[in-house]
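Before going further, learn to read the protein records used in this course. The integers have meaning only within a learned vocabulary of local backbone shapes. To see the layout at work, look at the sequence and tokens printed below.
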Amino acid sequence: MLMEGSVEYQVNLKYIKKAFLPVTREQKLAEFVPVFNVMGAGEQKKVPGKVEARARVYLPEFLNFAKKLGFKVEANESLLKWLNLPPSKRERLEYSGNKRIILRTSDDYAYLRLMVYGVVMAVLKTPAEWGQLEEYVLSMEPIQLRFWASRFKNTYWKYKNRRKLDYLARRFLEVEWI
């Protein structure tokens, strides 16, 4: 049971037009949204906040990282099985069911880690780099994590534009990592 005034974090994975990648991956648009629990007319209501960032993410890597961080995955069981097939097999077996995926957590650090990972993942193109990014994001200190997550959030709110986030993600790579 969630407490009055508490916040839950939600990541919606939606359809996105495919971009060219050197590897075959399922691509999704990840939307990062806080959900507030408020009392209204004697009952608990969930009120979604403003979208804090949007990013192109690649499955199954993004999903696996979310699970590692303790996110609850809400999706069709058969979709999750299909996403874990090797890419060559996945191309042959087209999945036609509901592809909606929602990730939830109440851990704000897990949410911030996934946001930083998702936004920066969008500008990297290979699974090897995603693996290194995953390790790096897991090792980030809370202050550093909050700094980058708030930079991504404020930039997204100001410009409502993924391109500006990509630009900032490249600065993250210059400053933090490469």
Observations:
- The chain has a mean pLDDT of 90.
- The chain is about 45% helix and 25% strand.
